[in-house]
Amino acid sequence: MRSDRSQSAPLGLKIAAACGLLFLHLPLLLIFVYAFTTEEKSYQWPPPGLTTQWFAATWNRPDVWQALSLSVQVAAISTAIALVLGTLCAAAVSQTRFFGRETISLLVILPIALPGIITGIALRAAFNLAEIPFSFWTIVLGHATFCVVVVYNNAVARFRRTSGSLIEASMDLGADGFQTFRHVILPNIGTALLAGGMLAFALSFDEVIVTTFTAGQQQTLPIWMLEELVRPRQRPVTNVVAMVVVLVTLLPILAAYYLTRDGDQIAGAGK
C-alpha cells in the first residue's frame, strides 16, 4: 500500500502552484532584465538591447554609495540592539513566571503587528515631543522597534524547547551564571539568534515606511530608490541597485531558513 507522501500531487494543484510562483517572482526577474537594458528613459518591453554599462554607472555614483553605507550602518546597529534586547526579553518571558508575562509578550511583538505607518507616526510624535532632532540615531531607534520582535520570536521559541534541567545541572555542578550562559544556553540558542539577527538585518535594510517618518535629511538605499523612481536620472541604475537589495535581503533569509530548519534537535529537549 502506497503512503500518502509517495502520491503525486494532482495536475491542477501543480499548475496552481506554478502560477503562484510566477506571480510572486516574475516581477523580480523583470527587475534583473531591466538592469541590462539599453533604454534609459522608459521600461520598454522587450528591451531594445542588452548592456552592462549601468553596472559601471552605478559603481561611479557617489549618492548610491552614501545611501548603501547608511543602510548597512543602520541595519547593523539596529540588529545589534535587537539581539541584546530581544534575547533578554525572550529569556525573561520563557524562563520565569510572573504576573503579566503574557501581556509583556504581546507588547513586545506589537510593533511588527501594527501597520508601519502607525509605528512611524507614533515614533515621529514621540521624537517631536521629546525634542529629539531627526538623525541617524532616530532611524536606528525606529528600526530597532521591529528588529527586536524578529529576534524575540526566534529566541523565545528556542528557549521554550531548551530543557530547564540543563541549566539546573550546570548550576549544581558549580558553574556561575556566565559559564552557564556560555557553555549551556548559548550553544542551544546560538543558531536561533543568528537566524533572528539575519532576518532583522534584512528587514532593516529594506525598510521604507518607518524610515520616512524617522529620518532627517538622510537617505537610506530604499528611500534613494523611491526618489529615483519619482525623479529618474538613469532608470536602469535604479534596477541595478534593486538587484543588490534583492541579493542582500535574500541571502540572510535563506541562511536563516537553513539554520533553523533543524531547530527541533535541541540538547535536552523534552527531558
From TrEMBL:
<feature type="transmembrane region" description="Helical">
    <location>
        <begin position="105"/>
        <end position="126"/>
    </location>
</feature>
<dbReference type="GO" id="GO:0005886">
    <property type="term" value="C:plasma membrane"/>
</dbReference>
<keyword id="KW-0813">Transport</keyword>
<feature type="transmembrane region" description="Helical">
    <location>
        <begin position="240"/>
        <end position="259"/>
    </location>
</feature>
<dbReference type="InterPro" id="IPR035906">
    <property type="entry name" value="MetI-like_sf"/>
</dbReference>
<keyword id="KW-0812">Transmembrane</keyword>
<keyword id="KW-0472">Membrane</keyword>
<dbReference type="InterPro" id="IPR000515">
    <property type="entry name" value="MetI-like"/>
</dbReference>
<keyword id="KW-1003">Cell membrane</keyword>
<dbReference type="GO" id="GO:0055085">
    <property type="term" value="P:transmembrane transport"/>
</dbReference>
<comment type="similarity">
    <text>Belongs to the binding-protein-dependent transport system permease family. CysTW subfamily.</text>
</comment>
<feature type="transmembrane region" description="Helical">
    <location>
        <begin position="12"/>
        <end position="36"/>
    </location>
</feature>
<keyword id="KW-1133">Transmembrane helix</keyword>
<feature type="transmembrane region" description="Helical">
    <location>
        <begin position="70"/>
        <end position="93"/>
    </location>
</feature>
<dbReference type="InterPro" id="IPR051789">
    <property type="entry name" value="Bact_Polyamine_Transport"/>
</dbReference>
<protein>
    <submittedName>
        <fullName>Putative spermidine/putrescine transport system permease protein</fullName>
    </submittedName>
</protein>
<feature type="domain" description="ABC transmembrane type-1">
    <location>
        <begin position="68"/>
        <end position="256"/>
    </location>
</feature>
<feature type="transmembrane region" description="Helical">
    <location>
        <begin position="132"/>
        <end position="152"/>
    </location>
</feature>
<dbReference type="Pfam" id="PF00528">
    <property type="entry name" value="BPD_transp_1"/>
</dbReference>
